Amino acid sequence: xxxxxxxxxxxxxxxxxxxxxxxxxxxxxxxxxxxxxxxxxxxxxxxxxxxxxxxxxxxxxxxxxxxxxxxxxxxxxxxxxxxxxxxxxxxxxxxxxxxxxxxxxxxxxxxxxxxxxxxxxxxxxxxxxxxxxxxxxxxxxxxxxxxxxxxxxxxxxxxxxxxxxxxxxxxxxxxxxxxx
Length: 180
Fold this sequence. Notes:
The chain is α+β, with helices and mostly antiparallel strands. Helix content is 36%, strand content 19%. A hairpin with a 7-residue loop joins strand 1 and strand 2 (28-29). Helix 1 (3-13) crosses helix 4. The two termini are 35 Å apart.
């Protein structure tokens, strides 16, 4: 599921009820206080996303007496949206370590300091350890989560993700992550 789909599903999961109108001049009724990122979503693409969500039983449709269609998220949709909830995000730790290290490197410009600080805080929150100032490490699979964070914070151009099996002086990291 791409980042726009994730954002729309998360928006619906927050309790927003979206209404699609058959008239072209009132195509959407969406709460005015939503962030600019939501407003920038192409309305035709949004209609296709909602149809896709409906096909996958993530949302349900209700036709109103005035001809508008009200869209609500289903329980399955709420469960799926939780996977992309940045505030409650976590990484599933497998029972056995695959002996690979996941590295995240970033060089986010000073003019985007808040995004950089938020990204750094999130990495720490989900269990990464700072290897160097802008290099973080984690022992378990997490590429999807990092991809999501890059899209969420809009910093994809400044972040690199790598996996490696060889790392010098890894004994202290194994101790920190309790891998022995």
